[in-house]
Amino acid sequence: MTEHTPIGYKCLKCGKIHYPRHGRCLQCKNREFEEVAVPTKGKLVTFTKLKAPPSGIASRSLFLGIIDLGEVGYTGQLDVENIDDLQVGMELEATWKQVRIIDNRAIHGFVWGLP
């Protein structure tokens, strides 16, 4: 896997894939995981507008969503200008891009937008 591949955490006991990583598997309580690549395309399950984003984010608001990737729900930033651009069930694709600046250093991550 490259740093530009979305990853999930697969339980080594039952196979459930999690994102983000948990201390224990939500299904069987096992504590051992392996990183696995997850799809870069999925469907929007739900979304919200964050009106007070953390420091280092230039915009005054930020859209977050849960994207259904099949075996796992992936929580991430949504690349839209307006909440009216979002619809539950719409197809989204991950893009690696700058998401904020901390201590004058660019921080990159996955942002989900239209394919």
Total domains = 2
The stretches of 5 or more residues where confidence is low (pLDDT under 50) are none
Q: Please state the structural category.
A: mainly beta
The percentage of residues in β strands lies in over 45%
| Total number of helices | 0
How far is the N terminus from the C terminus? 21 Å
Estimated radius of gyration: 15 Å
Total DSSP E strands: 8
The strands making up the biggest β-sheet line up spatially as: 4-5-6-8-7
The average pLDDT is 90
Q: Note the overall shape.
A: globular
SSE order, as H and E? EEEEEEEE
Helix content, binned percent: under 10%
Biggest beta-sheet profile: 5 strands, mixed, barrel
How does the SSE layout of this entry go?
Blueprint: E1 7-11, E2 17-18, E3 33-37, E4 41-50, E5 62-68, E6 73-78, E7 91-102, E8 105-113
Parallel strand pairs: 6-8
Antiparallel strand pairs: 1-2, 1-3, 4-5, 4-7, 5-6, 7-8
Structural write-up:
It is a single chain. This protein has strands at residues 7-11, 17-18, 33-37, 41-50, 62-68, 73-78, 91-102, 105-113. It is mainly β and 115 residues long. A hairpin with a 4-residue loop joins strand 5 (62-68) and strand 6 (73-78). It is globular and about 40 Å long. The chain has two domains: 1-38; 39-115.
